[in-house]
Design goal:
Helix 5 crosses helix 6, helix 9 packs antiparallel against helix 10 and helix 11 runs parallel beside helix 12. The protein has a 4-stranded antiparallel sheet. It folds into 2 domains: 270 residues, PA2201 C-terminal domain-like; 48 residues, no CATH class. It is globular, with a radius of gyration of 20 Å. With 335 residues, it is mainly α. The mean pLDDT is 92.
Length: 335
């Protein structure tokens, strides 16, 4: 993903409250952070475990959080959605890496009894759970949603009504659908949208977006544009994901504030899966470097610039370099 210069930023930015200075600083700082974490986790004391499980989890957690902030910053600044989509599998790998480290800590003597969730649904970190599910759907990576329940369920005392409805569309066996949302405002009003007849949904979604910001007063992002470089934009990711999967006519609220409509348009444009019925075998097959090749053929890295290589079945997937500190490959064809 390439950072926009000040001229392109001025023409393409989606978030009116985002200044170029904040976008410029966050883009560079977050990219640098990915490389710092990659080098840190590659140190012998981290690989051997000598550093200790808690210290090993700290950089992995920061990288996971930063990866979603990076996507939000890039979207707000006007970067192409297709470039965000290429980066999403790396985001999920960062969260899986953090999950592995956090579970290892929880199961160790050092972390015994902590009972802290990977994605705490009762606190302000709920936004990360919301964002990772919605962006998987909207960037065409719904096939990766089967990796999310492990993160959601770990040490969370209950499930969330909105997130479970989104997951259930793609993971039908996940059929416990609570009637409440763990953070309540603003999200509980989406339950009405799911339950409403199709004809009533556009008006309900329009109302939801009109109320969204003020209903978010308890969320960490509220008024964040007044707190300097923590600001990544105000977006109702859930509104876009629900609009897409439920085929809601968005003509009455396309231009509403807080509606990331370009993500909906991208998902529609690539015919992204809308339910488990659309998760066909030809959906892109991702795998990370260092793993055995699951299918012989031509593979391409989800990186800038991309690399292409032929791999035999079982051959270890390897890349010469990785811009984000991790390499994810996607299967192209058998030629």
């Amino acid at each position: 993903m390439q950072k926009l210069d000040i001229d392109k930023f001025g023409k393409k930015k989606r978030e009116k409250l985002l200044d170029f200075e904040v976008y410029d600083y966050n883009f560079d700082d977050l990219l640098t952070g990915f490389e710092v974490v990659r080098k840190t986790l590659s140190r012998p004391d981290y690989i051997s475990g000598e550093i200790g499980k808690y210290k090993a989890s700290v950089p992995a957690k920061q990288r996971a959080w930063d990866s979603l902030n990076f996507l939000a910053t890039a979207y707000s600044g006007g970067d192409e959605v297709a470039e965000l989509a290429k980066f999403f599998p790396a985001v999920l790998q960062y969260w899986e890496s953090f999950s592995d480290a956090w579970i290892a800590l929880d199961q160790s003597e050092q972390g015994a009894g902590s009972r802290v969730a990977i994605l705490p649904l009762m606190g302000t970190e709920y936004v990360f759970a919301n964002q990772i599910i919605c962006l998987a759907i909207l960037t065409g990576w719904a096939k990766l949603l089967n990796k999310i329940p492990r993160m959601l369920d770990f040490n969370n005392p209950c499930r969330d009504g909105m997130l479970e409805r989104l997951l259930h569309i793609f993971l039908p066996d996940r059929d416990e659908l609570p009637s409440e949302c763990t953070r309540h405002l603003p999200y509980f009003k989406t339950i009405r949208i799911f339950d409403a007849p199709q004809a009533a949904r556009p008006a309900l979604m329009k109302e939801y977006l009109e109320d969204w910001y003020e209903a978010s007063r308890r969320e960490g992002y509220y008024n964040s544009h007044m707190r300097g470089d923590v600001f990544t934009g105000y977006w109702s990711w859930e509104a876009a994901a629900i609009t897409f999967v439920l085929d809601i006519d968005d003509s009455s609220f396309r231009d509403a504030m807080f509606n990331p409509v370009d993500l909906v348009d991208y998902a529609r444009g690539i015919n992204a899966p809308k339910s488990s019925r659309y998760l066909a075998d030809n959906v892109e097959l991702p795998e990370k470097s260092g793993q055995p090749c699951p299918k012989a053929g031509r593979w391409e890295t989800l990186d800038i610039p991309p690399q292409q290589r032929q791999f035999k079945y079982g051959e270890i997937l390897q890349a010469s370099d990785a811009a984000y500190g991790i390499t994810v490959w996607r299967y192209l064809d058998a030629t």
